[in-house]
Amino acid sequence: MLVPLYDTVHERLEVGRGTRLLGLGCGSGLALLMAASRGATVTGVDHSPERLALARTRLAPDSWGTRTRAGSRVVEGSPRDAAGAETPAYNLVTAFEPIGCLAGDSEGLGELLAEATPLAARGAPVVLAGWGPPERCATSTVLRVATRLADPLRSTGSWRPSLRDDLEEVAHRAGLRPDGSGRVACPFGYADADSAVRGLLSTGLFDAAVAATDQAQVDKELAEALHPYVRRDGTVWMPNVFRYLIARVP
């Protein structure tokens, strides 16, 4: 769903040979693969062994018809776990997991940045990503289901509307200097309503709602909220806008 975001950032920052990229919360490694296909040497960190297993498969030599650069790797854990005495400083850090819709998500990103920025070269760009304004994100109307059902647990990770300065506040707290931003259209498309429910549940944004109620109720109300976005052929289409911020390591 976020491929347009990855591609836009890579193009703007001219990712290619000579790029040493550290991907925070790299997940299943799609953004890393796209950077590696441009010639970058990439390192990804994440805490999910299942997603990292897929990332390793994607970054294997000649995987998907793409030869990755020597030294590309993924590491389970935090940025500190990816550092070594002989590891060159990274000249690009990306945090593509969007913040701004989950209560407390910016604090988690701040902790990652505190570990990552000392590993980056002076002046290196750090890319942060977030959800766009709710009125520009059709998915935000569906995510409100999570807020309503998880109200008793609101402070433990339920959805909240994104704020205009979310990314700038994270950058400021991390001691980074903002140096440009942009918006990218990233529509969410699914083959059918069942696929949409599964896909949205996999984001983790509904975990608090499930804990506060039960899985069956969340599934039912999520399917009802998706109804306006089901097209005549049964597919689901939700236009969204995501925002990115480029900040610099001092």
UniProtKB/TrEMBL annotation:
What is this protein identified as?
Answer: Methyltransferase type 11
Q: Which GO terms describe its molecular function?
A: methyltransferase activity
**GO biological process per UniProt:** methylation
Q: Is Acetylation set as a keyword in this record?
A: no
Extract the signal peptide range: none
Domain of life per record:
Bacteria
Its keywords, alphabetically, are: Methyltransferase, Transferase
- What organism does the record attribute this protein to? Streptomyces mangrovisoli
Q: One Pfam family of this protein, by short name?
A: Methyltransf_25
Which residues does the UniProt record annotate as the domain Methyltransferase?
Answer: 22-64
